[in-house]
Every structure is written in C-alpha cells, then in structure tokens.
C-alpha cells in the first residue's frame, strides 16, 4: 500500500481535498484524532501522520487508506463517492443503483459516439 514516492505533503493535500469535498472541517478531524485543529492544519501542510491516525481520517472521509497514497488516482471524488455509497448499501438495492446509473448514462449518451 505504501508508495515510496508519496510524501507527507501529498498525503496532507489529499486529506484536505477530500475533507473540503465532503464539507468536513478541520475541527471534525481534530475531534476524531483527539488533537487540536492547528495539528490538523499541520498535517494538511505536510506534517507526518501516524498509520493509526490516517486510518481514522480515512474512515471519517469515507475512503480507503490507499486513497491517500494515490491508489485509484484515476477515480475522481464523484466516482469515489458513488463507489462508497454502492458498497455501503444493502446488496438487495445494488441492482437498482446500477439501473439508475445506466439510465442516467443513457440519457446523456451521445448517439454519434
């Protein structure tokens, strides 16, 4: 999972981007980690974060720890949210979700492509 080319600054940037996308505050993360908001700001600016704390942040931000290391990098935040919601829903509802996504795709599909 650990990508040696990923720096603490990269991880901090990804935390901040995901946090802002979800509307989570630094104070929310601080509460989960039992640290000050200033410490969260430092983490987002590149201060190293422990594996345990990163796991807690990942859970709050509804991503895998691998997300912070660039896994699934070709997946944007919207795709990640759809995947997360799909995985969290009861299996009995998944066919309905797939049908809705297909219908939305088909409604916007360009027949010339």
TrEMBL record:
> What's one Pfam family here?
HTH_3
Q: Which branch of life, at top level?
A: Bacteria
Instruction: Extract the InterPro entries matched here.
Output: Cro/C1-type_HTH, Lambda_DNA-bd_dom_sf
Which Gene3D superfamilies does the annotation name? lambda repressor-like DNA-binding domains
Which region is the signal sequence?
Answer: none
An MF annotation (GO) of this entry? DNA binding
Write down what this protein is called: Uncharacterized protein
Task: Tell me what organism the protein belongs to.
Answer: Capsulimonas corticalis
């Amino acid at each position: 999972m650990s990508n040696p080319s990923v720096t603490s600054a990269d991880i901090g940037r990804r935390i901040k981007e995901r946090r802002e996308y979800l509307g989570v505050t630094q104070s929310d993360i601080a509460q989960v980690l039992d640290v000050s908001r200033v410490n969260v700001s430092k983490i987002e600016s590149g201060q190293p974060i422990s594996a345990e704390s990163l796991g807690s942040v990942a859970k709050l931000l509804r991503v895998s720890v691998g997300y912070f290391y660039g896994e699934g990098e070709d997946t944007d935040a919207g795709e990640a949210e759809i995947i997360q919601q799909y995985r969290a829903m009861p299996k009995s509802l998944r066919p309905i979700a797939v049908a809705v996504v297909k219908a939305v795709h088909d409604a916007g599909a360009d027949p010339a492509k």
